[in-house]
């Protein structure tokens, strides 16, 4: 079911500040969309408005062309899984799953069949008679999943359902949610602040900040072609190296970038953007994975000293100091180097990012015209 | 077909508007009944009292001339009123400080014992749950000059029988002591509960750093307990300020008005002497004073804890 | 906390002394309720005697104590029930909805705890009198009159205590039920109420104790028909002599249920006594 948010606005109570700032968003039928952003960015408020738990100040929400903006939560044919609530404590697992079915008139036999079928789907059919005290946190969240599925909703809303679980369970349930999404082929909208979770789950990632959508696109797009400095910084761990700098046009028409202590040649794909730039101030970005340790210095290469090495397993994270700047560099553990050793950093021109220092928008032409949202 | 569509839409927009209205103001559906009752049983009586205090109203007479602030002037220049105001202040100062000191001491000592805590706490709770009037009557019996246990006990150690409640010099302090007996356990209970919720980490780290225990008390316990202490003081102050039951049954204000509290005096003014307006003026004055005191204490409290 | 042995012994000595001073008068007085009349005032006190229930019989039947007990029960239970019916929904709203003025309203509710009973008792008497004279509505010396009046101190306490219990539950609990096909009211009744039930019981008990012990408003507004137990206790003091045995029989009838309820309630007591200001 296609979910469309049109000019959705929600202000904070007793304030003129917007929690969700007139956003527009289309989530295609069957898509698993992830709302990603730091706390307070409006992602949960957006989800709660879709569920009907918050009333928008203005704007419309439609599911499959049906305008649900004015419907009570119970009439929206959506399901929701919450972060800090999983099971009704006064009911056992079976009654929890059956609970949504009691709201609609349904025969006992039909209820029983549905409960057992759904319980099997999330692997808790052996726990049906357990009480809240007898199930673990992960199992309780499976009960919440089962309860959300039992009415066969058109849209699943998930508000950080995994963030109260420990790391191992989180990964396990993440896989399971992905599987459920494929089996039910329903539309999923998943809220998280964990960008790794967003990457692994999402067909589409919607990055939000301060009530605005910063970028909406595939995990690939969001990671490799961030539309602004915020997305560049927020997505990816360790995060992208971002440095302020000034650009200069050379006689040949190419651009060079002046950074504190060194300068670089900029690839031609930035030329259109740079020609339209007001002033010369930019933010230059490069992911730690796009920096190589070179044997000797050369073009687009600077010299520095290794200050810190963190082992990440098969790879190492190196902190290399160049002048006043600390660079995060990811290298293969076998190619790693020792603390205090001099090193040469080579920047891959194809993986450089450039943002307007004022607007923080990307200077790649096709992206700036794409705009936000 | 078109017509029915149109009317459907019209209906929906009315019901939609209604839905939005109920959603935006849903809290009033829950709160309004309670609020209306409170307006009727608290605000209206206070307004009524204020009104009455500006007229001369008695239970006997039907004529009610407007007298402006005369009732207030009469009250403030009335020796008995001032005497009872002074007595009330005396109760507040000594009952609050006495019960606070004892209760705080008990709470601190309570942290140093292990076995039997539950039983000790249960025993100390008893006075709080007793009706003040029962406490007063019980102590009347305890303090009886002829057969009371207190005098019997004093006799055992060679002190002759006393009529503490009948003598102007001892009646007031005796009533205050009984009040303290009833309410220091409340201070104990509040502070003990407050101390139980204090985090352990600051104590452990202070101990590791070799901080002496009096300094731990001054720099860690007291600051962290501040909101709890304020609540205990606030509750004790407002309760001492309106003391009525205990005094009513122990001395009924006597001898010679030495134990008369404001509540008692106003009660008598209204119901024994039928001077309703004057009593109303007095009660409004009382409300203003306690309002001022609790406003000041609340200001301090709000600085400490976030409410609501 | 590690405490030196000497310090611990000293703490025990003082605390046990405190407990004895609390317990002694209560026990000694209560024993008097079981003494036959001839030793009510014996000096030195008689400790060994054959216990009798004649004081209770006298108080209960000759002096119509059962009537006052009935009045006390009707007024206390009635006023607590009304306070819960009005207060629980309000408490829920304060715990769940943020709205303009919610904080100020809550603070106003605590401030009601500070109002001296004389301030409302006095006008109540006059208002009831007026109602009688002008509209012929009798509220003086009736159960409804007292039950309504008692809301001045019960209702704010119910709202504050229950607000705390509701706030302890995740809002997602009823929101989940609302998404799953129930109205907010349905979610409240089916999901929240079963969970918050122990809190309602605790609130009811504490409020019952306050209503049960109430003296001042009853003194002003109750009459022959609605006298409560605390009001009758004073009637055993006559100018010439005090019927101590009978008096303590009444005292015990007032105290006993409260002490039992307190033992049941002891975990929740502080929350109630402090108005739940501290959480």
Please characterize this protein's 3D structure:
- The complex is a heterotrimer of chains A (373), B (308) and C (279).
- By secondary structure, chain A is an alpha+beta fold.
- Chain A has helices at 43-51, 93-102, 108-121, 137-149, 167-184, 195-201, 219-224, 229-234, 271-275, 365-370, and strands at 3-11, 18-27, 32-36, 58-63, 66-67, 78-81, 155-159, 187-192, 204-209, 212-217, 241-249, 255-259, 262-265, 281-286, 291-294, 301-311, 315-322, 325-332, 342-347, 352-356.
- In chain A, the strands form four sheets. In chain A, strands 6-7-8-3-9-10 form a six-stranded mixed beta sheet, sandwiched between helices. Chain A has a five-stranded antiparallel beta sheet with strand order 13-12-11-14-20.
- The longest helix of chain A has 18 residues, at 167-184.
- Residues 367-373 of chain A have low confidence and may be disordered.
- Chain B has one domain (78-307): MetI-like fold.
- Chain B has helices at 2-24, 26-53, 70-76, 79-110, 117-129, 132-142, 149-156, 168-196, 201-208, 213-241, 245-250, 262-271, 276-304.
- In chain B, helix 8 (168-196) crosses helix 10.
- The two termini of chain B are 53 Å apart.
- Chain C has helices spanning 5-32, 54-62, 65-96, 102-111, 117-135, 143-149, 151-167, 172-179, 184-213, 216-221, 229-233, 244-265, 269-273.
- The longest helix of chain C is centred in the first third of the chain and has 32 residues, at 65-96.
- The radius of gyration of chain C is 23 Å and the shape is globular.
- Classes of the chains: A alpha+beta (373), B mainly alpha (308), C mainly alpha (279).
- At the B-C interface, helix 2, helix 4, helix 5, helix 6 and helix 8 of B face helix 1, helix 3, helix 4, helix 5 and helix 7 of C.
What is the element layout, followed by pairings?
The complex is a heterotrimer of chains A (373), B (308) and C (279).
Chain A: E1 3-11, E2 18-27, E3 32-36, H1 43-51, E4 58-63, E5 66-67, E6 78-81, H2 93-102, H3 108-121, H4 137-149, E7 155-159, H5 167-184, E8 187-192, H6 195-201, E9 204-209, E10 212-217, H7 219-224, H8 229-234, E11 241-249, E12 255-259, E13 262-265, H9 271-275, E14 281-286, E15 291-294, E16 301-311, E17 315-322, E18 325-332, E19 342-347, E20 352-356, H10 365-370
Parallel strand pairs in A: 3-8, 3-9, 6-7, 7-8
Antiparallel strand pairs in A: 1-2, 1-4, 4-5, 9-10, 11-12, 11-14, 12-13, 14-20, 15-19, 16-17, 16-19, 17-18
Helix pairs in contact in A: 2-3, 2-4, 3-4
Chain B: H1 2-24, H2 26-53, H3 70-76, H4 79-110, H5 117-129, H6 132-142, H7 149-156, H8 168-196, H9 201-208, H10 213-241, H11 245-250, H12 262-271, H13 276-304
Chain C: H1 5-32, H2 54-62, H3 65-96, H4 102-111, H5 117-135, H6 143-149, H7 151-167, H8 172-179, H9 184-213, H10 216-221, H11 229-233, H12 244-265, H13 269-273
Helix pairs in contact in C: 1-12, 2-12, 3-6, 3-7, 3-9, 7-9, 8-9, 9-12
